[in-house]
Amino acid sequence: MKLSVVIPCYNSADTLGVQLEALCAQTWSGPWDVIVADNGSTDHPDRVVDRYRPRLNVEIIDASTHRGASHARNVGAEAAKGDTLLFCDADDEVAAGWLAAMAAALVDHAFVACRYDIRRLNAPWLLGSRGHAQAHGLGRIAYPPFTLYAAGGSLGVRRSIHDMVGGFDVSMRYLEDTDYCLRIQCRGIPLQFVPAAVVHYRFPTQLGAIYRQSFRWAQYNVLLYKRNCQTHWADWPLWRGYLRAWVRVARVAKAVARRPSNARAAVLAERLGTQMGALKGAALYRIPPVTL
C-alpha cells in the first residue's frame, strides 16, 4: 500500500504550517506523500510548503480552475501517487499516530473516517456552543437512505473506490463530504469509524464566519434532501418542524440579550445561520426547509 495525503487549501497559509508540522511527526513503515491542492489562494501557501520540503515528501499543485473543496480534493487525488487516499484540511492538525492508524484500518476496510477532537485548537467558550461531532462515532443522515457520514478532512479511501464514484461532486460547494459518503455507501461499501486515528478540528471563531458556515451547510442539506427524497413543496410536517426551530432561535436570542456572552452569541449565530440557509435552500430547490 502507498498512501497519499491530500490537503485542499484556500487562503490557509496561517494554519497550513501547523498541519504540515504535524505530518512531519507521523511515522509509518510504508511509502507516502503529501499533496497540497491550492484552490486559488492569494496568501502564498507555496512559501509554507517550501519550508517543509526538506522534512516531508510534499508538493503543491494548482487546483484553481474551479472554486471549492470538491475540485481541490479531486485534483489533489488525481496528482497523488498513492493507491490509497487520506484527506485532511489545511486548518486542522492530525494527532500523533493518525497516519499509522488510518493505514492499518485501510488494510481491512475500503472507506474509513477518523475521530475528531475539538479541545486542542479551540477556546473553551466555543466548545459548548458548537457540539462535538465525530468524537465518539459517525453522524447519520436523518432522511433516506439514512447512511453514515463524516467530515471531508477525516476520510480515507482506496483510490479505486474514489475513482468508481467519480470523486467529490464539484456542483456541491458545501456538504460535498456528506454527499461523497452517501454515494460510496449506496454502492454497498460501508464507512468504518477509526477511533484510534485523531484529527484536532478547528472551529471558526468569528460570529460572521460561524453564521456563514451554518448557512451554507443548511442550504446544501436541502439540496441533498431533494436528491434523495420525494416530497412536496407544501409538506406541512416539514414546515412545522422548521417553524418550531425558530422558537428555539428566539429563546437563544432572548438569552443573549439578557446575559451576553461569546458562547451564547456563537449558538445564536449557528442556529440563525441554519434557519436562514435552510430557507434559502427551500426557495432555490422548491422543497420544504429541512436540516440534518
Protein model, in words:
By secondary structure, the chain is an alpha/beta fold. It folds into two domains: 3-200, Spore Coat Polysaccharide Biosynthesis Protein SpsA, Chain A (Alpha-Beta Complex), CATH 3.90.550; 207-285. The chain is 46% helix and 17% strand. The chain contains ten helices and ten strands. The protein has helices at residues 13-24, 45-52, 69-79, 98-108, 124-130, 159-164, 176-185, 207-228, 236-258, 262-285; strands at residues 3-9, 32-38, 58-62, 84-87, 93-94, 111-117, 139-140, 148-149, 155-158, 192-200. The strands form two sheets. An eight-stranded mixed β-sheet has the order 3-2-1-4-9-6-10-5. The protein has a two-stranded antiparallel sheet with strand order 7-8. Helix 1 links the parallel strand 1 (3-9) and strand 2 (32-38). Helix 5 packs parallel to helix 10 (262-285), helix 8 packs parallel to helix 10 (262-285) and helix 9 (236-258) packs antiparallel against helix 10 (262-285). The longest helix is centred in the C-terminal third of the chain and has 24 residues, at 262-285. The protein is globular. The mean pLDDT is 94.
Features:
292 residues; two-stranded antiparallel sheet; Spore Coat Polysaccharide Biosynthesis Protein SpsA, Chain A; alpha/beta
